[in-house]
Amino acid sequence: MNAARTLATARRVLRQLGHDPRTVALLLGVPLLLLVLLHYVFVSDPRLFDRVGSSLLGIFPMITMFLVASITTLRERASGTLERLLTMPLGKADLLFGYALALGAFAVLQAGLATALAVWFLDLDIAGSSWLLLVAALLTALLGIALGLFVSAFAATEFQAVQFLPALLIPQILLCGLFTPRDTMQPVLEHLSHALPMSYSVDAMTEVLRGHGVAGDFLRDVVVVAAVGLGILGLGAVTLRRRTA
Questions:
Q1: Exposed, middle or buried by CB within 10 Å (0-12, 13-18, 19+), for 46?
Q2: What radius of gyration do the chain's Cα atoms show?
Q3: Could you tell me which of 1, 143, 139, 155 has the C-alpha nearest to residue 72?
Q4: Higher-confidence position of 129 and 1
């Protein structure tokens, strides 16, 4: 992987996103609106908002970053830009990590805004550090980017990319422990949840909610989420291919 080529790809993607206000609004605005809506849904039960809201602080950005990453890549494939880039001396890893870097810049801003809104304006009560909550939310958003770039290699159209969302993300949302503790699930589902990266993201945010700090389970959880994200990006670079000879 060449650093200069990766940065050049990231700059190009950032310029393109800068000319697409609807995508920017989706990235930055939708998670904030959903958090506000969630706050008023649970306005009579602040403790439930604390528990669910801390987890959804990462899940909402993960969903939006997944959609934007997959659709942005497919737009470039449909326009022929991706095919032309792959004929140049640009490594597949340079291309995918450049996309990840550009979208990661939006993920930092998105996670920062969502965390600030939840903690300072929606009265999300956490015993731990809000900075640790930001780290967990950011890593979850980056995982969404990695998954979106990965599935773009297998989808032929934007509609097909959207179809991957219920297949890849909805099962993780159901099994991550958001609705019920994972150790109370049917044993097969509990074991399956241990293999899903979103479970570790939710666990990390739960650790921050309880004020357990960096040591122990939180560090393990964020390392797992980061490692899975990097692994998926690497696998995406291997599977990325031209559609024409």
A1: middle
A2: 18
A3: 155
A4: 129
